[in-house]
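Cont'd.
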Amino acid sequence: MAVNTAESPLLGGARRGGRLALPNSVYRALLAVVAAVFVGLVAWFLISLIVQAKPAFSTLGFSWIVQKVWNPSHNQFGLLPFILGTIETTAIALVLAVPIGLGTALALAYLVPHRLRPGLSTAVELLAAVPSVVYGLWGLIVLAPLCREYLEPFLSSAFGWTGLFNGPNQGVGLLLAGIILFVMILPTMVAISRDVLAVVPEEQVEGATALGATRWQVLRKVVVPGARTGLLGAFTLATGRALGETVAVALVIGNSPFIAHSIKSPAATLPSLIVNNFGEATGTELSALFGAGLVLLVIGVAVNALARVLVRSTARDSTASAASVAVA
Amino acid sequence: MLAAGLIAAGVVLAACSSSSTPATTTTKPGGTLESTNSQYLSADLKAPAGALTAAGSTFVQPFFTKAFFQYQSLNQGVQVNYSGVGSGQGITDFQAGNVNFAASDVPMSSSDLAKVPASSGPVIQVPDILGGVTVSYNLPGVTSRLKLDAATLAGIFDGTIKTWDASQIKALNPGLTLPSNAITPEVRADSSGTTYIFTDYLAKAAGAAWTLGTSKTISWPSSAVQTPKNSGVASSIKSTPYSVGYVELAYAIQNNFTYASIKNAAGNYVVPSANTVAADADQKTSVTPTDFSIVNASGTTSYPISGYSWAIVLQKQTNATTGATAVKVLDWTTHSGGGQALAAGLDYVALPPAVQNSVRAQLLTITGPSGQVLLTK
Amino acid sequence: MTTLAFDTSIDPILERRRRIQSEAAASLGRRKVYSRIALGICWVFLGIAVVPLIAVVAYVVIKGLPAWNVDFFTKSTVPEGIPGGGVWNAIVGTAIIGAVATAASVPIGLLCGLFLAESDGRIAAAIRFSADVMTGVPSITIGIFGYIAIVKNTGHFSGLAGAFAIGIIMVPIIMRAGETAIRGVPLHLNEAALALGARRATVAGRVVIPAALPGIITGVLLAVARGLGETAPLLLTIFGNQFLQWNPTKPIEALPLVIYNNSSQPYADLIQVAWGAALLLVVVVLVLSIGSRVLAHVLQREKR
């Protein structure tokens, strides 16, 4: 196309001064205006969130964010249970997703027969596009009963001594929410990890193999360290998705506004708090929910920024470009 | 004197196997419908075409959606998009002016009304249906119906009674083998009129034993699983063994739940049904937005956790056409011969005729932008 | 005399190599066992990962297909207990929200991407920062913004408010894909066109964007796929509608909303509708994702 199609229509276009032949200054201005519209929109978003959250801060000070009690009828709007719930569900998801995601990505990139790799990789990437509400539906209808009948009794009897598994087996709760998040972020994590693992230069892999390293040693000492930056990017991106997930979590967490005393307890997260209460809230409660949104935004943006910093600035290895594309 | 009369009426009702059909004698509390009813109803079905948006109570949702569906089949131009989002959100949406009307199982309080912009003018609140709140449970191995009283319910729902074989439950159900499993209370996560009716009963019947108050939102114990909407709680009860929750009667019957018989003010254990809810409501037929509670009424067959759901609409409609549509649809829905005829089939109880008459009187005060009355014969 | 042979016994480097080799040979068995175990664990993890993912897809297909019939695709929602009905209203709603959001976000995203590819100033930094913020923001917060910006200001819920929120989610995705694709266009094409006297707008419209089209289309389709599946913002903005509604300024239904609302219903027929809607949404999203790949592939080949 470079020569054939670009040349003649271009000349024609330039001479005729077609629709698109705006003067350069107008074109530049147009781009700048559109850019300003977008930046303005984001500024409007941030400002309106802050403005709406401000009454909560001015009535309750700043300490309400870390207070323990959420009880709107008594004007108590502590966000701590929800912040902890958000962190705990994400932590459960990551504890499962990091090793399993990494192992899966390694298997997909180096162990699975060559013929199957493209197909499997594409399948995983496509799964990453499945909407989260579908995972929520599956979690509530299919996984909750399994969790209650098999997983929770098993964990309680095997690890009951830790004190982490007290209370009745209800199915819904922190554990199920964490598991759903794990299943939901897994495809994203595997897809990106596989990409960054696959671009570790073949010479390094071959070199290590020639030196007598076993396959595992190659993966452990060459491939994973070589893809370190990209992997970190993948994990942080997945963390961001888990922290902000709303509907899949709201369906399976049990929505109890308390600091969970057990991994099986019903709990709540910042997004589930917002989605369950936003519609009916007024006054300070509404403002507190905007505040919860603001807290969530700060956490989300911080994690995302961390991903970018990790990928962009420390990136010296070959996986950097793949990772930055993936994170974008 | 009055109380004695009411109790007497209850006994009479009980004697004739508590029929929910309103009596024709003036001494019976149900009253009679005004003779103009049918004229209004046929005019209601000629409401101007248009789409209405309404939101609120999930207590009334099964009734509303079917009544509006029926209305649309009779007057195809009118669509009423009712969203069951909970009474609390219905009121909030109404205050924000996002809906043509709202529904709540507890009328807007004075502080709720204060949040309606002054420019919107006064608010009309009318009963739209009568229903009961069941205590439904999922108790594997127990087939017979549990008997529960207010104090025990209070203990179950404030978390102090933790297992099914607790002494308080055993004492009320001698001869029943109860499992030792932990109780999972299933409650509402959203601001709910059903919660209000339930806690209103607990506060009135259990007295000091119930410490969590009467409200649309309660600070439940941490053991409770919270789910939005009546349907959500029903779904959660259905899928969680050893759970117990409160849902509107229609939800309990349609899901084949087992539900408890509840001790009423007369000391009898009463199974919720259209008849026993009607018996409770018949004890008090002059309800107003400030005096609406009918829980724990006297009468031997009264089911004590009963309540009206309320439709909420602005008295001054800013648009004559949608205003007329809204008023006519509401009038049709709240009267026998119109929507109320569907009540029994859906496990609700039709409004007593006296209440229907007062609803129409209220709806007749709703006017369009130029002051014209929108409800016509 | 002809001592070409080195005295290997005292060369420290060779000595070290020999030692390493003998250690490596001695540990080979152990290392192989470790390797087997570790690789075995990788395989196990692959299995653990595959089971739930296959289960999700299998359940959606197995439970969703029985819900699919003519009514499902042609009728609107009917109340619980009344037989029949479908999700036509939600299909139309999702299509409208997707169309409006795409129509609004593609020009903004694309022009911002063009701007980013062409300039590196303070404004570009501001755009990059904004896009970073918007990518990191949980979608429920964007739903809150849709509520403040549209629902509150217009006084009612609407498909438009949902499309606004979804569009905001799509813009950064399109922008980044656009920027990457545009930066990938060889500079000499640009320069050649400019040397011929073409104005910048002409170059952009006739050279750069056509050359970057495969990447742009992929980005747009992925953004649409992502946007159509978003649920949280819709919960705060579109209200839902059991009737068919073509007017985006009115409350509207959408497939993700149907899935979310019906999944916590106690009635088996409503849950089946949720599965059917989930299958439909997954099919649509997958068709968009696969379509973007195929299209990009085809366009890429045509260019050569």
